[in-house]
């Protein structure tokens, strides 16, 4: 369970950070470095969070969530892609680079 860093793509959807379908809840910590990021949890990878779900992590701050699958998206859709770091996900539960688009409701 090492920390990993990535840049989020600026779009209107969620980026899946990682998670597991079965087993106990995971504790995931996200830190945002240069832009506000929305951070949310969902029961499955396919069950994308609502657009206003989760918490906003201000630039320079961090937040911790507990659950099975974790997602992030930039709050603003313009500007440089925000840099984040994620900690607490086992290696077999991490996304290499998997961006998910939001589903229309």
Can you describe this structure?
The structure is a single chain. This protein has 105 residues and is mainly β. 0% of the residues lie in helices and 40% in strands. The chain has no helices and 8 strands. It has strands spanning 4-7, 15-19, 26-32, 37-42, 55-57, 62-67, 69-74, 83-87. It has a 4-stranded antiparallel sheet with strand order 1-8-3-6, with no helix packed on it. A 4-stranded antiparallel sheet has the order 2-7-4-5, with no helix packed on it. The protein is globular and about 40 Å long. The N and C termini lie far apart (34 Å). Mean pLDDT is 86; it is low at 98-105.
Q: Considering DSSP H and I runs of 4 or more, what fraction of the residues is helical? A: under 10%
Count of distinct strands: 8
| Biggest sheet descriptor | 4 strands, antiparallel
Termini Cα gap: 34 Å
Shape: globular
Structural class: mainly beta
Q: Total number of helical segments?
A: 0
Q: Could you name the ranges where pLDDT drops below 50 across 5 or more consecutive residues?
A: 98-105
Gyration radius over CA: 12 Å
- Beta-strand percentage range: 35-45%
- Average pLDDT works out at 86
Query: What is the chain-wise order of helices and strands?
Result: EEEEEEEE
* Strand order in the sheet with the most strands: 1-8-3-6
């Amino acid at each position: 369970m090492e920390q990993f860093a990535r840049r989020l793509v600026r779009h209107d959807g969620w980026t899946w950070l990682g998670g597991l379908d079965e087993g106990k809840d995971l504790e995931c910590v996200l830190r945002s470095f240069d832009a506000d990021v929305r951070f949310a949890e969902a029961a499955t990878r396919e069950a994308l969070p609502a657009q206003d779900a989760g918490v906003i992590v201000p630039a320079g701050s961090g937040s911790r969530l507990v659950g099975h699958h974790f997602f992030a998206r930039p709050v603003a859709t313009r500007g440089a892609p925000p840099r984040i770091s994620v900690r607490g996900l086992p290696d077999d539960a991490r996304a290499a680079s998997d961006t998910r688009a939001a589903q229309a409701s």
